[in-house]
UniProtKB/TrEMBL annotation:
One of its GO terms (molecular function) is FAD binding. Residues 3-85 form the FAD-binding domain. This is FAD-binding domain-containing protein. Pfam families: FAD_binding_3 (PF01494), Rng_hyd_C (PF21274). InterPro entries: FAD-bd (IPR002938), FAD/NAD-bd_sf (IPR036188), RIFMO-like (IPR050641). Its cofactor is FAD. The lineage of its organism: Bacteria, Bacillati, Actinomycetota, Actinomycetes, Kitasatosporales. It comes from Streptomyces griseofuscus. Residues 230-249 have a biased composition (Basic and acidic residues). Keywords: FAD, Flavoprotein.
């Protein structure tokens, strides 16, 4: 073989760094987690690491968040890396077992994938990284949407959420068409969008009146109230780990899975 265009070496070692942050050293992607390239989730998780870290670094460098926000990078992404390793180990076991018992297990799972939509949907969401919740819902009071990745919502004015996120800022949605207009929490990089959802939108979003979407597309908070006071209380139930006053709701929209506290710097 001469002049190969691509050489790659890989094995089935499975390891994860104990910590993704030590001071000014931050690990992301394969530097933080390595595994057999089964099923192809590795790159997705690495890109999500980088996205999670990117907006936090930018906020700290701009002075709109305290250094503590960077600790939430480990808090949010380490569990995702651990699940990635679990997932690829399970797939490796399924791929490499040729005993009759292993073949029976593969057959059974294959049947579930083909016939149980919820099962295949759950697997697809894990593989794509869309099931990730930042931070994981810890309390019964947390609204089901909080922490989840927002879908590409379509609004009555023809605009779409992913289009609004493109600039790299966070997006404050007023889905009542004005009732939540007095909602605090705006910063220069916040895109405020006031328009109801387009008809036939997503069921989980039908009752939502206002929401703050982080720059990485995760829901910082979502409310179902229309009264501005109740709305603000609902938002404040979800601590924000950024520099900012208690009244303005901070500026980075990054909730911290580790400290669960408001860091007003
Ligand atoms: C065969 C195979 C198939 C795969 N298939 C998929 C797939 O289908 N889907 C998927 O999501 N993932 C897949 N993956 C995993 C995916 O390729 C990795 O998760 C991803 O490339 C990791 O990106 P990274 O930037 O973290 O690291 P890398 O892609 O490894 O990038 C690190 C870079 O740093 C450079 N570097 C290293 N040391 C130094 C140094 N000292 N100074 C300067 N530069 C340095 C390296 O040369 C490299 O370019 C596959 C992996 C393999 C091996």
């Amino acid at each position: 073989m001469r002049e190969p265009r691509w050489l790659s070496r890989f094995g089935n070692a499975t390891r994860q760094a104990e910590t993704y942050r030590r001071g000014r050293v931050l690990l992301a992607g394969d530097a933080a987690h390595m595994h057999f390239p089964a099923g192809g989730p590795g790159l997705n998780v690495g890109v999500q690491d980088a996205t999670n870290l990117g907006w936090k670094l930018a906020a700290v460098l701009r002075g709109t968040a305290t250094d503590g926000l960077l600790d939430s990078y480990h808090g949010e992404r380490h569990p995702v890396g651990a699940e990635l390793l679990l997932n690829t180990r399970a797939q490796t076991a399924l791929m490499t077992t040729y005993a009759p018992e292993g073949q029976a297990l593969r057959g059974l799972l294959g049947e579930f994938i083909a016939t149980v939509p919820d099962f295949s949907q759950a697997l697809a969401e894990r593989m794509s990284g869309l099931s990730v919740v930042h931070p994981p819902a810890e309390s019964a009071s947390a609204r089901p949407l909080t922490g989840r990745r927002a879908p590409d919502l379509r609004f009555a004015d023809g605009r779409r959420l992913f289009e609004l996120l493109r600039g790299g800022g966070r997006v404050l949605l007023d889905l009542t068409g004005g009732a939540a207009a007095g909602l605090p929490g705006r910063t220069p990089d916040t895109v405020v969008h006031t328009a109801p959802l387009a008809p036939h939108g997503r069921d989980a979003w039908r009752r939502v009146t206002a929401a703050l979407i982080r720059t990485d597309g995760h829901v910082a908070w979502a409310a179902e109230e229309t009264d501005p006071e109740t709305l603000t209380r609902s938002r404040d139930a979800h601590p924000v780990h950024v520099r900012g006053s208690r009244r303005d709701g901070g500026s980075g929209g990054g909730r911290c899975a580790v400290t669960r506290g408001r860091d007003v710097g």
